[in-house]
Amino acid sequence: MKGKDIILLSPAQRRAFETLLAGIAGSGVVHLKASEGSGRTTVLQKAQAAAGGILLGMRQFMCTLAGGPPFALEEAFLQMIEQALSTSDLVLVDDLHLITQVTQNCEYPRAYLLDAALIAITEEASGLGKKLVFASDADPPGPLARRAFSCEIGTFEPEDYRSLCEGADAQTQSRLDYDQIHRFAPALTAHQLRNAFGWLSRDENLDTATFIEYLRSHYMISNVAIEEVQRVRLSDLKGVDDVIRELETKIALPFENDALRRELGLKPKRGVLLAGPPGTGKTTIGRALAHRLKSKFFLIDGTMIAGTHGFYGRVARIFEDAKRNAPAIVFIDDADVIFEDEDNRGFYRYLLTILDGLESASTERVCVMMTAMHPGNLPAAMLRSGRVELWLETSLPDAEARSAILSERLANLPAPFREADVERVSTASHGLTGADLRNVVDDAKLLFASDRIHAKQPAEVEEYFLRAIETVRANRRKYSSSRPSKLGEPVQFGYSIEP
Fold it and tell me: How far is Cα 9 from Cα 208, in angstroms, rounded to an integer?
């Protein structure tokens, strides 16, 4: 690594540094905006080395605060800067957002007092002919926004990634494709990049794939614990070949084929609706995508209830994480159930705003996929062209698909189940879903076990399946007769509860 006394700047940091110096030269107050981890403090240290002055941070603020009355945040802030101005013509203040986050809280008892302190200190500095620089990870408070020259550390590009992985020898640098690393994870911080390279640089065979896999396991985040999700692959799904083909082409391909995405400018579909009767594999498709995309998959489902405390904050965080991990999928399971409740109109409007915002360059690689049993329950505006770009339907499995599902489920079972007449059971199960067939197999095993434990003569194994099928049909009839009418009729998908 380079000597600790040398501060190296990436291209984006250097542009901000040069703009900051120009602002110091031409203005009395400057504000530097930079996201967390983008090198804000590094740029300030470089500016101090070039222009002189005193650099203040949270350590100095806390020391000043400790010496005064409790909770006197604004007074301590003012005192800290006044003391620095008494000995220097230039004062640089880092991490302003850590103070504004407290004073702008809705429960903070002294609202707007920090604004008064900022006005007082900027006017005092101006009267003394001295200069102030404030730095934060957000837009400046009103008094600074009206007075300050603004500059910002821009988003990192591949050359920033290359620069921030300092210390690499030429051979290692040549093995790393920083364009590909940046496309996989375009929102890494300087700390994350340097830490990743510091750890991986010990590997003499370090290459791009190894670097990306490290990033995936350490810095790519999802709200889904993959190890708790049933493992399933898209290729395992039966009877939905056309749906899988569309997902492979219009979602997975632009996510996974980096070369073609770069060459042709491919983007995954922005909005996808996966509609179909219950039990036809919609949620299972979500599980398959979760395993395939790993850290690129984010879930919103019934465990997150609109209107509850913190709901919108959690949803906003999911979309922010998805944007940082782009390309990524936000999977909204059972969206029609969420939106059928009139109390959830706020979430509907919120989601519309998010969907429309996904057209921007920073979010164009985020796909929102919704599942629905009854699309008619979704708000019409949600389905308009441009918001849902791909509409897919899962349907009841045909005879061939039912045979494939049953054969797969029976293959690892003991006799007599693995020897059952699959075609006979498949024919008898006409109109059942994949989930129904799973229940049929489970119920048939239970019926067989019941006869065994009661010392009854076992029937033909197919009879257990036929009895289980009739139980499933009976349950479906009961559900159909008791279901609230507002949920709509399943006939829109072309299936019946009768064989």
Answer: 23
Pairing, β 131-136 against β 90-93: parallel
Q: Which pair of structure tokens corresponds to residue 41?
A: 């403090």
Angle at 244 between CA 218 and CA 246, to 5 degrees: 95
Q: Which residue has the tokens 């076990």?
A: 449
Q: Burial-class residue 486 by CB neighbours within 10 Å (0-12, 13-18, 19+).
A: exposed
The β-bridge relationship of strands 366-372 and 149-152 is unpaired
Across 21-39, average pLDDT: 94
**3-class secondary structure, 34:** coil
Cα–Cα distance, 466 to 474 (Å, whole number): 12
Cβ atoms of residues 82 and 123 within 8 Å: no
**DSSP letters for 305-354:** -TTSTTHHHHHHHHHHHHHHT-SEEEEETTHHHHHTSGGGHHHHHHHHHH
How many of the other CB atoms lie within 10 Å of CB of 18? Answer: 15
Can you read off the two tokens belonging to residue 264? 């042709």
Report how far residue 131's alpha carbon sits from residue 125's, in angstroms, rounded to the nearest whole number: 6
Instruction: Round to whole Å and give the CA distance between 131 and 145.
Output: 16
Mean pLDDT computed over every residue of the chain = 83
Task: Give yes or no for a cis peptide into 186 (omega within 30° of 0).
Answer: no
* Report field, pTM of the whole predicted structure over 0.85: no
Length of the chain: 499
Paired with 134 in beta bridges are: 31, 93
Cα–Cα distance measured from residue 274 to residue 146, given in angstroms and rounded to the nearest whole number: 48
The DSSP H or E segment spanning 303 is none
Contact, 26 vs 151, CB < 8 A?
Answer: no
Cis peptide before 268 (omega within 30 of 0): no
* pLDDT tens string 98-142: 999 888 877 788 888 999 999 999 999 999 999 999 999 989 999
